[in-house]
Here is the input.
Amino acid sequence: MTRDQNVDQQDAKSEFNCINRRQFLLYGAGAVSTLALGSIFGSSSSFAGQAQFAQYPRKRIVGLSELKTDQPIEFLYPNDDPTYSKCLIVNIGERAGGGVGPAQNIVAFSGICTHMGGLLNKVYKPEHKAIGPCPNHLTTFDITRHGMVIAGHAVESLPQIVLEVEGNSIYATAVAGLIFGGPTNPGMMFR
Ligand code: FES
Here is the structure.
């Protein structure tokens, strides 16, 4: 084994051990998965490295042909509880991190602000490809870059809904990140 191979193996081993320890301490056997980002968001995604996400039952959201550019559609995920499952899906008209569809321009995010739970489902800004400002304290999130905070009080990215396309249908399969106020939120310790 070469030195580089040995270093790679050590790195992989310590990351695996670290995740297992954290999972054990915080959640036990929660439904948290770690995958190469390329494998969950598409091989040509702008993601690099690894992501932790919480897997939930697969749910059909909308048909590909029903989405019009810059016109978000609201939906509920990971369950049907509107207090913390409000989400939006939008074709932003340009390639985005984690985007699906032929042009990788369809993304979905939680509609609940990560700062203190402000509702974001009506504040998509097509001119900036952003969600916000939050009506409470003005946080704005960049949805071309996995919901990173652009400005405002929040310090956590907006949770991105992991999408999958099959035929003409778009499905939600998991959540990358912590949903504010979620009672079962196994993704929270990795953000
Ligand atoms: S609740 Fe959204 S910025 Fe405070």
In short: Confidence is low (pLDDT under 50) at residues 2-30, 35-49, 187-191.
